[in-house]
Amino acid sequence: MTSVAILWCFHLTWYEESGHQHRQAIRHGRRFNPWYEVDLYNENQFIGLFRMGQLDFFRLIQALLHHIPNSFQNDIQGLTIEEKVGITLYRMGHGSSYETVGDVFNMGKATAYQASQEVVQAILVALHDSTIVFPVAEEIEKWDAIKETFRQRQGLTNIIGAIDGTHIPIIPPPNDQWNAYVNRKGWHSIVDGHGNFCNVYGGLPGSVHDSRVFRKSKIGRDLINGVARFPPECRLIGDSGYSSRLPILIPLRDTQNQEQAQFNNFHSSTR
């Protein structure tokens, strides 16, 4: 997967009411002075709006610079790259509808949607292969470093990734298959010992069981077919929804003594 400050034509005033912090947009008739030229926000306000600091925001801009059309001079929207990224980060960070984002940024929801789509596509093109990276089996030094981060948690050895699923809310499809998209978890991801994503797979209906989603993923298919995705002594760590026949360390289903119960505690703390 973030946030930044309002990009143009309005200032934000902050006030307290009933213990909650609210934003109030003071809009002007036209856009003026891009936000990055006006010292309107401190770092905390910036992070509160866009879920990232100003330095990280500009780093993201540089990474996406050649992948987002700059329509400031040749498009009816007149949006700069900075504005498009800010709109996208605000929506991601707050889970707002495009109508709400358009209202906050003083634009139509169609414009907010188009800007957000451009940025999301740019992120996929520019950052996916360099940011979410699963090491190859031969990169022994990387695997050793990952194993060490997991070992330092609770002493479990040869763990190179924690796997789990998450449920992503969606608008159900308008057909007879809508009930397949209820409950269960539909996205799978693997993170390293620092919580960094190194593999993500999604797209199946939310009713599909965790273990089946994993078997459908590229890494899952490779492991089933005997393709070495990591050193042979290494394992992923996951909950009891996964099969113990794969190189995934799962908790014991029935603990018979204190040692087994302690193992499950270590297992839970590690992942």
TrEMBL record:
Gene Ontology molecular function: hydrolase activity; metal ion binding; nuclease activity
Keyword Magnesium among record annotations: no
Subcellular location: Nucleus
Domain DUF8040: 42-124
Record-annotated DDE Tnp4 domain positions: 163-271
GO cellular component, one term: nucleus
Pfam families recorded: DDE_Tnp_4, DUF8040
Cofactor field: a divalent metal cation
Keywords: Hydrolase, Metal-binding, Nuclease, Nucleus
Superkingdom of the organism of origin: Eukaryota
Family the UniProt entry places it in: Belongs to the HARBI1 family.
Name of the protein in its database record: DDE Tnp4 domain-containing protein
